[in-house]
Amino acid sequence: LPLQVLFLSTRLMLSGKRDQVGETSHFCILAHPHFSGQGNDEADSTLNQMLVEMDGFGSDTNVVIFAATNRKDVLDDALTRPGRFDRNIQVTLPDIEARKQIFLVHLEKILCDDKPMLAKKLASLTPGFNGAEIRNVCNEAAINAARRDAEKVEY
Hints:
By secondary structure, the protein is mainly alpha-helical. The chain is 38% helix and 6% strand. The protein has a two-stranded parallel ribbon. It starts with a strand and ends in an 8-residue tail after the last helix.
């Protein structure tokens, strides 16, 4: 069988630590629009079913599951047991050169002068920014230019 990869994004991975009666206290898996924070039978059932399914994967199963979260501290302990999500890869924030490259990607479709110089300048002004925040900076610049009826983004 071909390799099958399943990726659970942050929105799908939100699952809080369960209390003594098995109810989720902070976050729920498959964020439910009516989640009140007081436990959620549907979320707990989904989490429990996912754990059962993961336990059924053998070493000969061609399934790899990746998940991402910014809140590892609130994940249910059952998710991080051996054989489940037991390996952690920390993705750090981009350094100045990486931010410059990310700015260049997001400035590609934006009209402005000297994109390489602008990307370098913006990268130096945005320590601690991640890719999504850099994208937002570029989008906001384009929106502000449009509001001013400008032909291009100016800095």
